[in-house]
Amino acid sequence: MANLKTKIELYLIANSKTWDNKKVELQDDMVNGVSSLYIKTWNYDIAKPTDTQIASYETAGNTKETNNIIIATRKKSYGSWENQLDEIYTDIDAWKTRIAKVKSDNPKE
User: Fold this and answer.
1) Which of the 8 DSSP states describes residue 44?
2) How many CB atoms are located within 10 Å of the residue 67 CB?
3) What is the rounded (10 degree) CA torsion for 98, 99, 104, 109?
4) What is the per-residue burial (b if ≥16 Cβ within 10 Å, else e) of 14-38?
5) pLDDT tens per residue across span 20-49
6) Range list of H helices, the chain
7) Chain-centre distance of CA 7, in angstroms?
């Protein structure tokens, strides 16, 4: 299940806006140990999203969060850019093969 922040970010992007901590604040009022996250403050020049609008971003939010994990895994597997440059200088074909394997082992949705 995509988190609320991700779904709001997608709503903002769809409305040509970006996340700004000064314009939106989320709050979690735990009720009987269950999270009850909601928008506490909304200071954009567009309407605050309804629960239905937020829910409509569930699938896209799941995809974004999954891809963020995949991207982080790829970055770790790629190694530092300094090491990659050295690898490219030493044997560019081996580097291309290794990078292609990292991508195929960690496909984005």
Assistant:
1) S
2) 14
3) 160
4) eeebeeeeeebeeeeeeeeeeeeee
5) 999 999 999 988 888 889 999 999 999 999
6) 4-14, 51-55, 58-78, 81-105
7) 10
